[in-house]
Amino acid sequence: LLWTNNIMIDQHNSLAEKFLKKGFWLYLFSFIIAPMGYIIKIIISGELTVSEVGILYGIISLITMISAYNDLGMSESINHFVPKFVTEKRYDKVKTILVYAFIAQMITGITIAAWFFFWADWLAINYFKSEDAIETLKIFAFYFLGINIMQILSMFYISIQNTFAQKIIDFVRMIWVLSIVLYMFFWNMWSLIHYSYAWIGWLYLWILVSLTLFYYRYLKKYLHSEKILWDKILFKEIFKYWALVFIWAQAWVLLSQVDMQMIIVLLGTQDAGYYTNYLSIVSIPFMIIGPIFGLLLPLFSEMYSKWETSKISLVKELFVNNFVIISIAFNLFLFTFAIPISYVLFWEKFLTSWMILQYSILFLTFNFLLQINFNILAGVWRVSERVKIITLAVIINFFTNLLFINLIWVAWAALATWLWWVIIWIMSEYVIKWEYTININWKNILKNILILWILSIVTLYYFWNFTDFISQLSRDIWFWILFTIWIVYFCIFIGINYGTFKNFILQIKKLKKWS
Questions:
Q1: SS3 state of residue 307
Q2: What is the pLDDT of residues 375-413, one digit of tens each?
Q3: What gap in Å lies between CA 169 and CA 264, rounded to an integer?
Q4: Ramachandran region, residue 347 (left: φ > 0; alpha: ψ -120 to 50; beta: rest)
Q5: Considering the entire predicted model, what is its pTM?
Q6: CB distance 338 to 280 below 8 Å
Q7: Residue 231, CA distances (Å) to 93, 241, 391 in order
Q8: 103 vs 97: CA distance, rounded Å
């Protein structure tokens, strides 16, 4: 199907078919890819010092934050405009926006990469306060160059809803980086520099595979004969959205990375090492809930371009009522077993990460809720509201981080994080609730909270101080203990939600009537 389909987006499939078919590829590869990512992080955390882990992931965080400026809002513009242009069968416009994005990102990308390379000594000494960061910064200058191409191609596959292509390329990328890391591990080549080169290796292999697929599947078939439009009206339309998203993207990425950067500046790379592994643990629920969220923006954009606004409300209701209870189950499990999970994943030297985890994990549900609302706002061309909300959140988050990190240490950076999750969700819900109203199944949500909280309290009552006996058992044994507990926990969760999931299947069957 990947190579024989005659249309760029399978617009004629029902909404249910799109979620089931594309969701299948998202989850299949996510369940394969995610464990690879954790194996890589586990190996790196075991072989490097806490401070070196902080340097490596601190530099990655800094590059992610700066990429918002480098991107100039074009990635989000691709995600918004490409479904619209394909619906109109204007492949010349599709080609045009891709060319605009490439030119913009290459100009800024080369400039910023040169800054990383030639100012590496100054950044290492004055920002990271470690000479160990000098060579790593120079290596990641080349990483920054490649990530520009990656952003454009990745967002293009998301916008045309080709989840198979998107995930098969990610699969090849993870196989490659895991192979490099394992090679270094078994041949005792582990060092901060070697692991930095591993990042360069996977990125450029990803680009090679992705460009090959793009050329044969899309450029040669749809875009090769199309002209690039240097049209003022089209440029103005794209630029208007582009400018708004540029402001929003800067604010959003700054918001997501400001904690790490402030910890590096105020506390140092060792505390940043604890914090980055906390972020790895807190991202576990995204393995289940996250992949399907990648479909929301292009689907909302496509629905809105066809004036099918009732579908947007229907999809939001499905996501809120079914994925919220899943996120609650994950959050309470991670809260209850934070200490042994930190021990199993990252060894005893990273047990501090569990403390940070417990400050924010219970509020992660608000992150999923705000993502649904923000995808709606983007899909229906209401980017300015997102800009205002995120800008306010950035200001609040900066000052709460400044206060909490200075006074009460790194764990309270997580407190600042969940504060902005809640604030953003409340503001975004206020903006869209009148247009996209839904019926929330509060009875089922409260039932899940009550039952799962009782299980958590009982567990913590009998095993409240895991640190007293955590090292008495090996990490392997603790892994199987946690795995067994999770199976039992999962069965209880399915049991109390049998009626809800049965109704979910009926709702999916209803969606088959929507073309």
A1: coil
A2: 777 777 676 777 778 777 777 777 777 777 766 677 667
A3: 33
A4: left
A5: 0.64
A6: no
A7: 10, 16, 32
A8: 10
